[in-house]
């Protein structure tokens, strides 16, 4: 559990718990990998606990978590066997309705119940509309914690009914401490690359190390700086990506490319800003589409490489 940078969120949450009327809906907003899910579970346990009532150490009957289910029956079997498995792209309306049926009963151990949606970004349209009805008329003692990696993807009507808890990016020094503790095999170069690519997300930095994205990162920087006139660097980028990368690796590659562009934005001349802005916008489009589109992995990495080459093409100045 990575809980760095949560002091302000805990202060606001506990002040609300101590107040006369706890708000029933909360959005936990911040980059993926900043520990929002861990916070949500711990906060939910605090909320449902009551003096003199023994609390289960693991799954709690009064904490309902809605999240992406295994993609298929085979993936369900893989999950049960502790093997890697794929997830469905969305949280379905059937999942929300099943949760709502449980809300017609009383909580099991006390007077409160918490619904965690992780992530609320992945609610399909019907599911979001169904959840909205519960937020508009919540049963007594029911609270909602909606985890949002991209809050702009939530319905404005959902956002308007929830109180916002923001989870800011974690500083480089704290990120380095986390990596040293949890990934002691990572050398200085790997840690520095992971921190640069993660954009303040400890989870993303750990994933960078786990997925061995160092070679991808170096090649992306090389393409952005020197271009790729003979496509050789893009070929090496595809090799580093792997023949059959899973969706997690594909998403990580897109985010890595965005981090390369963002790093250049902070140290570029005015003439290069339009190319950087255009490239970042295209990568943001890919990042938004990648969780739900069936991209060909080879074409995806070639498109990433081609977008990065635009940064290395000299731009002639206009003459009046």
TrEMBL record:
GO terms for biological process: DNA-templated DNA replication. One of its GO terms (molecular function) is DNA-directed DNA polymerase activity. InterPro entries: DNA_Rep/Repair_Clamp_Loader, P-loop_NTPase. The keyword Cytoplasm does not apply. Keywords: Nucleotidyltransferase, Transferase. GO terms for cellular component: DNA polymerase III complex. Its EC number is 2.7.7.7. It holds the Pfam family DNA_pol3_delta2. It comes from Croceibacterium atlanticum. This is DNA polymerase III subunit tau.
């Amino acid at each position: 559990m990575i809980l760095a940078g949560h002091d302000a969120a805990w202060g606001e949450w506990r002040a609300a718990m101590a107040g006369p009327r706890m708000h029933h809906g909360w959005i936990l907003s911040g980059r993926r990998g900043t520990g929002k899910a861990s916070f949500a579970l711990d906060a939910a346990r605090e909320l449902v606990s009551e003096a003199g009532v023994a609390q289960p150490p693991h799954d709690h009957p009064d904490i309902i978590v809605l999240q992406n289910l295994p993609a298929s029956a085979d993936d369900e079997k893989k999950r049960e066997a502790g093997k890697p498995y794929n997830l469905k792209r969305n949280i379905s309306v059937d999942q929300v309705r099943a949760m709502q049926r449980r809300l017609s009963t009383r909580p099991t151990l006390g007077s409160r119940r918490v619904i965690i949606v992780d992530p609320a970004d992945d609610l399909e349209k019907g599911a979001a509309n169904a959840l909205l009805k519960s937020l508009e008329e919540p049963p007594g003692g029911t609270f909602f914690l909606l985890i949002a990696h991209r809050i702009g993807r939530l319905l404005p009507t959902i956002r308007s009914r929830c109180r916002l808890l923001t989870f800011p990016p974690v500083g480089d020094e704290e990120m380095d401490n986390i990596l040293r503790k949890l990934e002691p095999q990572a050398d200085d170069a790997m840690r520095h690359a992971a921190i640069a690519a993660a954009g303040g997300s400890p989870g993303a930095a750990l994933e960078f190390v786990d997925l061995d994205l160092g070679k991808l990162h170096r090649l992306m920087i090389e393409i952005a700086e020197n271009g790729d006139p003979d496509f050789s660097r893009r070929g090496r980028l595809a090799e580093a990506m792997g023949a059959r990368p899973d969706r997690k690796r594909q998403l990580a590659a897109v985010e890595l490319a965005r981090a390369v562009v963002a790093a250049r934005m902070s140290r570029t001349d005015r003439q290069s800003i339009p190319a950087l802005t255009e490239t970042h916008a295209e990568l943001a489009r890919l990042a938004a589409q990648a969780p739900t589109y069936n991209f060909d992995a080879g074409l995806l990495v070639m498109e990433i490489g081609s977008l990065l080459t635009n940064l290395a093409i000299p731009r002639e100045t206009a003459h009046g």
